[in-house]
Every structure is written in structure tokens, then in C-alpha cells.
Amino acid sequence: QVQLVESGGGLVQAGDSLRLSCNASGDINGLTSMGWYRQTPGKQRDFVAAITSGGNTKYLDSVEGRFTISHDNAKNTLYLQMNSLKPEDTALYYCNAASWTKNYWGQGTQVTVSS
Predict the structure, then answer these.
(1) Residues 6+ apart with CB under 8 A from 61
(2) What DSSP string runs through 51-105?
(3) How far is CA 1 from the centre of its chain?
């Protein structure tokens, strides 16, 4: 089992920055990738960014160039640096960790961007 705990969400204005953190614990040695997803009420959970165990990254087109995903192996912590935030980035952001056989989710952290 893997436990994920997110932090760093909040209420900001358009153009501001936030950094989300996700601390992983448990059986983390078998993880192949980690990432961030977001969800707004009544909609499906959407992919935002991911990083593989080899360091390859992938982003949703609308956040490319504004968001940066990174991982600190020593701290077992995943980050999402979000710059130039827009109101449409408002959502509940979830941390995800994947192994070959399982997917794990955190409890989510709310990001609200006011115009």
C-alpha cells in the first residue's frame, strides 16, 4: 500500500503562483510514475501532469509552460509548481501514484483562482 498526502492548495488571484506537495509513504519502491489530476464539481477527473520513475514528464496542453512537475527522491515528495494561474485552473487537485498493478490517490487539495 501507498499513502499520499497533498498540501499547498489555497485561494489566489489570477497571475499568482502556488506549489502543491504530495508526500508518499509505504511501499513506494514499486511505483512507476506519479502525477497530478484535477476535478471540478460535476466533471470527470482530468490529467494535469505526470513524471515517470526515469524522470520523463508529460503535461496537459493548457498547463504546459506554466506548471512544472518534479520529485524529490530524498523526501519522497512530489511537487507541482503552478505559475500564471488562471481562473480555469480552479479545481480539487489530486496526487496519483501508479505501480504496474495499482493506482493510488490522495485526498485532494483545493486550488481556487479568483479573477
Answers:
(1) none
(2) EETT--EEE-GGGBTTEEEEEETTTTEEEEEE-S--GGG-EEEEEEEE-SS-EEE
(3) 19
Under a CB-based contact definition with an 8 Å cutoff, are residues 45 and 89 in contact?
no
β-bridge pairing 109-114 and 10-13? parallel
- pLDDT tens track for 83-102: 999 999 999 999 999 999 99
Identify whether the C-beta of residue 84 lies closer than 8 Å to the C-beta of residue 90.
Answer: no
Q: How confident is the model at residue 114 (pLDDT cuts 50, 70, 90)?
A: very high
3-state SS, residue 45: coil
Distance of alpha carbon 102 from the chain centroid: 18
3-state SS assignment for residue 11: strand
Q: pLDDT of 18-75, one tens digit each?
A: 999 999 999 999 899 999 999 999 999 999 999 999 999 999 999 999 999 999 999 9
The CA-based dihedral angle spanning residues 11, 17, 23, 29, taken in that order and rounded to the nearest 10 degrees: 140
